Amino acid sequence: MATTERSTIDAAEVERFSRMAAEWWNPQGKFRPLHKFNPTRLAYIKEKVCAHYGIDPNKPTPFSGLRILDIGCGGGLLCEPMARLGATVVGADAGETNIEVARIHAAQSGLSIDYRATTAEALAEAGEQFDIVLNMEVVEHVADVDLYMSACSQMVKPGGMTFVATINRTLKALGLAIFGAEYVLRWLPRGTHQYEKLVRPEELETALVRAGLEIVEKVGVTYNPFADSWNRSNDTDVNYMVLAIRP
Fold first, then answer.
1. Does 161 show up as a binding residue in the annotation?
2. Cα–Cα distance, 90 to 73 (Å, whole number)
């Protein structure tokens, strides 16, 4: 009798983002919100990594010696800054087209990044291990959150860190992140997010703890329309990030 292997891949989601792949590096294109969001999440990652590993943040390449996985890397918007900070970077995405875009842009930028068209489960099964696993704006697009978080968490070395950024499943998020961003402001194509697939912080934290990680911090990220910028906040009702470590 044939059995169906569980997978975290949602084929419709992969296809949706693959169709937009050529837009990844256009700061005024379909991924404009990520370009705006990037400075805030990069600053947070750098601050917490340097504090955790006792690194001087003013060094030219403070992440030298660290191996980082950016899972669901898309066109490489986080991979390239990590590489510039000195890290050895693996960027993984289920979309072949996204990976090709990322490879081309990294080559044009003179950066060496190990891009792979693969899944979290395949990497975990291969025994891959990383000092830092970046999991940014991906968990709300997978088919099986618990399986996905389990696979990602397996790849965090003892003493290593993981960062997860996603959108809360609240009415406020429905109004702002879906209706407002997709239908009113048209920051994102309609259908980019489905309300039922959004993940509440307690659900995410439970999955991380079940996978053997310890929650260090949860922080909100809010948009200031007057400054047209994103900032850290205590408000986790819409966008939020969770930092966890493997003891």
1. no
2. 9
Task: Tell me if 72 is assigned to a ligand binding site.
Answer: yes
Q: 115-150, pLDDT tens digit by residue?
A: 999 999 999 999 999 999 999 999 998 989 999 999
Structural domain contains residue 44: yes
Closest-CA residue to 145 (of 72, 204, 195): 204
Counted domains in the chain: 1
CATH code: domain of residue 82: 3.40.50.150
Q: Is residue 220 part of a domain?
A: yes
Among 5-14, 29-38, 87-96, 117-126, the least confident range: 5-14
Is residue 4 included in any domain, yes or no? no
Q: Are 233 and 220 in contact (CB under 8 A)?
A: yes
Q: Does 241 appear as a known binding residue?
A: no
To the question of whether residue 76 is assigned a binding role by annotation, the answer is no
Residue 3 lies in a domain: no
